[in-house]
Specification:
The chain is of the alpha/beta class and 306 residues long. It has ten helices and 14 strands. The longest helix is centred in the middle third of the chain and has 9 residues. The chain is globular, with a radius of gyration of 18 Å.
Protein backbone atom coordinates (compact mmCIF):
# COMPACT_ATOMS: atom_id res chain seq x y z
CA UNK A 1 0.00 0.00 0.00
CA UNK A 2 1.34 3.39 -1.03
CA UNK A 3 0.46 6.25 1.32
CA UNK A 4 1.05 9.95 0.65
CA UNK A 5 0.39 12.63 3.27
CA UNK A 6 -1.06 15.39 1.12
CA UNK A 7 -1.65 17.80 4.00
CA UNK A 8 -0.90 17.51 7.72
CA UNK A 9 -2.31 20.67 9.32
CA UNK A 10 -5.60 21.25 11.07
CA UNK A 11 -8.12 23.82 9.83
CA UNK A 12 -6.46 26.99 8.54
CA UNK A 13 -3.10 25.37 7.79
CA UNK A 14 0.32 26.50 8.99
CA UNK A 15 0.67 29.44 8.97
CA UNK A 16 -2.98 30.34 9.33
CA UNK A 17 -3.86 33.46 7.36
CA UNK A 18 -5.13 35.49 10.33
CA UNK A 19 -2.92 34.08 13.10
CA UNK A 20 0.17 35.50 14.78
CA UNK A 21 0.71 32.75 17.33
CA UNK A 22 4.34 31.87 18.04
CA UNK A 23 4.52 29.24 15.31
CA UNK A 24 2.80 31.31 12.57
CA UNK A 25 4.78 34.46 13.40
CA UNK A 26 8.07 32.59 13.69
CA UNK A 27 7.53 30.82 10.37
CA UNK A 28 6.76 34.08 8.56
CA UNK A 29 9.72 35.90 10.11
CA UNK A 30 12.12 32.99 9.72
CA UNK A 31 12.92 33.01 13.43
CA UNK A 32 11.58 29.51 14.15
CA UNK A 33 12.22 26.24 12.36
CA UNK A 34 8.62 25.48 11.40
CA UNK A 35 7.59 23.88 8.11
CA UNK A 36 4.49 25.22 6.35
CA UNK A 37 1.66 22.72 6.09
CA UNK A 38 -1.59 22.50 4.15
CA UNK A 39 -4.83 21.16 5.60
CA UNK A 40 -5.24 17.49 6.41
CA UNK A 41 -5.72 14.96 3.62
CA UNK A 42 -4.17 11.62 2.58
CA UNK A 43 -3.91 9.60 -0.64
CA UNK A 44 -3.46 5.83 -0.74
CA UNK A 45 -3.23 3.16 -3.40
CA UNK A 46 -2.55 -0.55 -3.76
CA UNK A 47 -0.85 -0.23 -7.15
CA UNK A 48 0.38 3.38 -7.38
CA UNK A 49 -1.98 4.06 -10.28
CA UNK A 50 -5.52 4.31 -8.89
CA UNK A 51 -5.83 6.35 -5.71
CA UNK A 52 -8.24 6.93 -2.86
CA UNK A 53 -8.43 10.23 -0.99
CA UNK A 54 -9.00 10.36 2.75
CA UNK A 55 -10.80 13.67 3.25
CA UNK A 56 -10.85 16.56 0.78
CA UNK A 57 -9.28 19.66 2.29
CA UNK A 58 -9.74 23.19 0.93
CA UNK A 59 -6.12 22.87 -0.27
CA UNK A 60 -6.83 19.79 -2.41
CA UNK A 61 -5.99 21.43 -5.75
CA UNK A 62 -2.55 22.48 -4.49
CA UNK A 63 -2.02 19.02 -3.01
CA UNK A 64 -2.93 17.25 -6.26
CA UNK A 65 -0.60 19.45 -8.31
CA UNK A 66 2.22 18.69 -5.86
CA UNK A 67 1.79 14.95 -6.44
CA UNK A 68 1.86 14.00 -10.16
CA UNK A 69 0.30 10.51 -9.69
CA UNK A 70 -2.99 12.31 -8.88
CA UNK A 71 -3.01 14.29 -12.12
CA UNK A 72 -4.36 13.09 -15.50
CA UNK A 73 -2.16 10.80 -17.60
CA UNK A 74 -0.64 12.14 -20.83
CA UNK A 75 -3.19 12.01 -23.64
CA UNK A 76 -6.19 12.23 -21.31
CA UNK A 77 -8.27 15.35 -21.84
CA UNK A 78 -10.48 15.17 -18.73
CA UNK A 79 -9.72 12.34 -16.31
CA UNK A 80 -8.46 11.55 -12.83
CA UNK A 81 -6.75 8.58 -11.18
CA UNK A 82 -8.77 9.32 -8.01
CA UNK A 83 -11.14 6.37 -7.64
CA UNK A 84 -13.08 7.43 -4.53
CA UNK A 85 -13.03 9.63 -1.44
CA UNK A 86 -13.51 8.76 2.22
CA UNK A 87 -14.77 11.39 4.68
CA UNK A 88 -14.07 11.08 8.39
CA UNK A 89 -16.47 13.89 9.35
CA UNK A 90 -18.32 16.88 7.92
CA UNK A 91 -15.91 19.54 9.18
CA UNK A 92 -15.03 22.29 6.71
CA UNK A 93 -11.32 21.47 6.66
CA UNK A 94 -12.14 17.92 5.55
CA UNK A 95 -14.92 18.55 3.03
CA UNK A 96 -14.64 21.92 1.26
CA UNK A 97 -12.27 20.31 -1.23
CA UNK A 98 -15.27 18.49 -2.67
CA UNK A 99 -16.32 21.78 -4.25
CA UNK A 100 -12.87 22.09 -5.84
CA UNK A 101 -13.33 18.60 -7.36
CA UNK A 102 -16.70 19.40 -8.87
CA UNK A 103 -15.75 19.70 -12.55
CA UNK A 104 -17.61 17.17 -14.61
CA UNK A 105 -16.48 13.77 -13.35
CA UNK A 106 -18.26 11.08 -11.39
CA UNK A 107 -17.21 10.69 -7.77
CA UNK A 108 -17.69 7.86 -5.32
CA UNK A 109 -17.79 9.27 -1.78
CA UNK A 110 -17.88 7.18 1.37
CA UNK A 111 -19.58 9.09 4.18
CA UNK A 112 -21.79 8.12 7.09
CA UNK A 113 -25.45 9.13 7.13
CA UNK A 114 -24.66 11.74 9.80
CA UNK A 115 -21.88 13.28 7.72
CA UNK A 116 -23.98 13.34 4.58
CA UNK A 117 -26.90 14.88 6.48
CA UNK A 118 -24.66 17.65 7.81
CA UNK A 119 -23.30 18.40 4.35
CA UNK A 120 -26.83 18.43 2.93
CA UNK A 121 -28.62 20.47 5.59
CA UNK A 122 -25.81 22.68 6.79
CA UNK A 123 -23.94 23.49 3.57
CA UNK A 124 -26.29 22.39 0.78
CA UNK A 125 -23.09 20.85 -0.59
CA UNK A 126 -24.72 17.66 -1.87
CA UNK A 127 -27.29 19.73 -3.78
CA UNK A 128 -24.61 21.99 -5.23
CA UNK A 129 -22.43 19.10 -6.41
CA UNK A 130 -25.18 17.41 -8.40
CA UNK A 131 -25.31 20.40 -10.75
CA UNK A 132 -21.65 19.84 -11.67
CA UNK A 133 -20.89 16.13 -11.36
CA UNK A 134 -22.41 12.75 -10.62
CA UNK A 135 -21.88 11.54 -7.05
CA UNK A 136 -22.31 8.01 -5.80
CA UNK A 137 -22.70 8.36 -2.02
CA UNK A 138 -21.89 5.18 -0.11
CA UNK A 139 -22.35 4.32 3.55
CA UNK A 140 -19.00 2.96 4.77
CA UNK A 141 -19.00 -0.55 6.19
CA UNK A 142 -17.96 -1.06 9.81
CA UNK A 143 -16.80 -4.60 8.95
CA UNK A 144 -13.64 -5.26 6.98
CA UNK A 145 -14.86 -5.23 3.37
CA UNK A 146 -13.14 -5.46 -0.04
CA UNK A 147 -12.77 -1.99 -1.52
CA UNK A 148 -14.02 -2.10 -5.11
CA UNK A 149 -13.67 0.34 -7.95
CA UNK A 150 -16.80 1.85 -9.50
CA UNK A 151 -16.87 -0.93 -12.13
CA UNK A 152 -16.87 -3.61 -9.42
CA UNK A 153 -13.26 -4.72 -9.87
CA UNK A 154 -10.91 -5.20 -6.93
CA UNK A 155 -8.67 -2.37 -5.75
CA UNK A 156 -6.42 -4.70 -3.80
CA UNK A 157 -7.49 -3.09 -0.54
CA UNK A 158 -10.06 -3.81 2.15
CA UNK A 159 -11.46 -1.18 4.49
CA UNK A 160 -13.61 -0.67 7.57
CA UNK A 161 -14.93 2.45 9.29
CA UNK A 162 -14.60 2.79 13.06
CA UNK A 163 -17.16 5.07 14.72
CA UNK A 164 -15.63 7.28 17.42
CA UNK A 165 -16.93 10.03 19.67
CA UNK A 166 -17.55 13.27 17.84
CA UNK A 167 -19.96 16.14 17.42
CA UNK A 168 -21.82 17.88 14.64
CA UNK A 169 -19.87 20.62 12.80
CA UNK A 170 -20.22 24.17 14.08
CA UNK A 171 -22.15 25.35 11.03
CA UNK A 172 -25.15 23.26 12.14
CA UNK A 173 -25.49 25.39 15.29
CA UNK A 174 -25.10 24.74 18.99
CA UNK A 175 -28.47 22.99 19.22
CA UNK A 176 -27.33 20.07 17.06
CA UNK A 177 -26.92 17.04 19.31
CA UNK A 178 -24.09 14.56 18.65
CA UNK A 179 -25.13 11.41 16.84
CA UNK A 180 -23.36 8.17 15.93
CA UNK A 181 -21.34 8.63 12.78
CA UNK A 182 -20.52 12.32 13.26
CA UNK A 183 -16.90 11.17 13.21
CA UNK A 184 -15.21 7.96 12.10
CA UNK A 185 -11.71 6.69 11.53
CA UNK A 186 -10.73 4.15 8.89
CA UNK A 187 -8.73 0.94 8.68
CA UNK A 188 -7.24 -0.08 5.34
CA UNK A 189 -5.61 -3.44 4.68
CA UNK A 190 -3.46 -4.32 1.66
CA UNK A 191 -4.72 -7.71 0.54
CA UNK A 192 -1.28 -8.82 -0.75
CA UNK A 193 1.15 -7.49 1.84
CA UNK A 194 -1.20 -7.56 4.82
CA UNK A 195 -0.04 -4.04 5.70
CA UNK A 196 -2.62 -2.11 7.70
CA UNK A 197 -3.18 1.64 7.90
CA UNK A 198 -5.23 3.29 10.65
CA UNK A 199 -6.39 6.85 9.98
CA UNK A 200 -7.81 8.87 12.88
CA UNK A 201 -7.27 12.61 12.21
CA UNK A 202 -9.89 13.51 14.83
CA UNK A 203 -10.05 11.69 18.15
CA UNK A 204 -11.54 12.81 21.45
CA UNK A 205 -10.10 9.84 23.33
CA UNK A 206 -8.42 6.52 22.65
CA UNK A 207 -11.56 4.43 22.95
CA UNK A 208 -11.49 0.66 23.45
CA UNK A 209 -12.63 0.13 19.85
CA UNK A 210 -9.54 2.02 18.65
CA UNK A 211 -7.10 0.46 21.12
CA UNK A 212 -7.97 -3.05 20.01
CA UNK A 213 -6.98 -2.16 16.43
CA UNK A 214 -3.56 -0.72 17.33
CA UNK A 215 -1.60 -3.99 17.74
CA UNK A 216 -2.69 -5.08 14.25
CA UNK A 217 -1.56 -2.00 12.34
CA UNK A 218 1.59 -1.19 10.40
CA UNK A 219 1.01 2.56 10.23
CA UNK A 220 -0.99 4.87 12.49
CA UNK A 221 -1.97 8.37 11.38
CA UNK A 222 -3.26 10.00 14.55
CA UNK A 223 -4.89 13.26 15.64
CA UNK A 224 -2.15 15.72 16.65
CA UNK A 225 -4.29 18.86 16.80
CA UNK A 226 -3.25 20.18 20.21
CA UNK A 227 -0.34 19.55 22.53
CA UNK A 228 -2.21 20.59 25.68
CA UNK A 229 -5.79 20.79 26.92
CA UNK A 230 -5.95 24.59 27.23
CA UNK A 231 -3.64 25.48 24.34
CA UNK A 232 -6.06 27.84 22.60
CA UNK A 233 -6.66 29.89 25.74
CA UNK A 234 -2.99 29.90 26.73
CA UNK A 235 -1.94 31.17 23.30
CA UNK A 236 -4.69 33.78 23.17
CA UNK A 237 -6.21 32.26 20.04
CA UNK A 238 -9.49 30.95 21.44
CA UNK A 239 -11.53 30.04 24.48
CA UNK A 240 -12.37 26.36 23.97
CA UNK A 241 -10.36 23.49 25.38
CA UNK A 242 -9.07 20.58 23.33
CA UNK A 243 -11.75 18.33 24.84
CA UNK A 244 -14.51 20.78 24.01
CA UNK A 245 -13.32 20.75 20.41
CA UNK A 246 -13.24 16.96 20.31
CA UNK A 247 -9.48 16.39 20.35
CA UNK A 248 -7.26 14.35 22.66
CA UNK A 249 -4.11 16.37 23.45
CA UNK A 250 -0.75 14.88 22.48
CA UNK A 251 1.12 15.82 25.66
CA UNK A 252 0.58 15.11 29.35
CA UNK A 253 0.30 11.87 31.33
CA UNK A 254 -3.09 11.04 29.77
CA UNK A 255 -2.24 12.39 26.32
CA UNK A 256 -2.05 10.30 23.18
CA UNK A 257 1.77 10.27 23.10
CA UNK A 258 1.97 8.60 26.50
CA UNK A 259 -0.55 6.01 25.33
CA UNK A 260 1.18 5.09 22.05
CA UNK A 261 4.81 5.52 23.16
CA UNK A 262 5.41 1.82 23.84
CA UNK A 263 3.41 0.40 20.93
CA UNK A 264 5.36 -1.66 18.40
CA UNK A 265 3.92 0.05 15.32
CA UNK A 266 6.34 0.64 12.44
CA UNK A 267 5.00 4.09 11.53
CA UNK A 268 3.38 6.30 14.17
CA UNK A 269 2.69 9.71 12.66
CA UNK A 270 0.75 12.71 13.95
CA UNK A 271 -1.47 14.52 11.43
CA UNK A 272 -4.10 17.30 11.61
CA UNK A 273 -1.75 19.53 13.62
CA UNK A 274 -3.02 22.93 14.71
CA UNK A 275 -0.89 26.02 14.09
CA UNK A 276 -0.78 26.69 17.86
CA UNK A 277 0.85 23.32 18.64
CA UNK A 278 4.44 23.87 19.91
CA UNK A 279 5.58 20.48 18.61
CA UNK A 280 5.66 22.12 15.15
CA UNK A 281 8.93 23.80 16.14
CA UNK A 282 11.76 21.50 15.06
CA UNK A 283 14.08 22.08 18.03
CA UNK A 284 11.32 22.26 20.67
CA UNK A 285 11.08 20.07 23.74
CA UNK A 286 7.68 18.90 22.52
CA UNK A 287 9.01 17.64 19.20
CA UNK A 288 11.96 16.14 21.07
CA UNK A 289 9.50 14.13 23.18
CA UNK A 290 8.14 12.59 19.97
CA UNK A 291 11.58 11.71 18.64
CA UNK A 292 12.57 10.16 21.97
CA UNK A 293 9.98 7.40 21.52
CA UNK A 294 10.23 7.14 17.73
CA UNK A 295 7.00 8.95 16.84
CA UNK A 296 6.90 11.20 13.75
CA UNK A 297 5.50 14.65 13.21
CA UNK A 298 3.62 14.48 9.92
CA UNK A 299 4.91 16.58 7.03
CA UNK A 300 3.23 17.36 3.72
CA UNK A 301 4.62 15.07 1.05
CA UNK A 302 5.69 12.30 3.41
CA UNK A 303 5.33 8.92 1.69
CA UNK A 304 5.35 5.45 3.18
CA UNK A 305 4.89 1.95 1.77
CA UNK A 306 3.23 -0.66 3.97
Amino acid sequence: MYVRLLGTAAGGGVPQWNCNCAQCYGLRQGTLRVLPRTQSSVALSADGQCWFLLNASPDIRQQIEAFPPLTPLPGQMRASPIAALFLTDADLDHTLGLLILREGLQHTIYATAAVRQALTEGLALTSALRHYCAVDWREPSTELTPLLYADGSSSGLSYAACVVAGHAPLYLGKESAPQPGDRVGYRFVDEKSGGTLLYFPGLAQLEASVKELLPQCTALLLDGTFWSEHEMEETGTGKKSASQMGHLPVGGPQGSLAQIASLAIKHRIYVHINNTNPMLVEDSAEQGALHEVGVELGQDGREIII
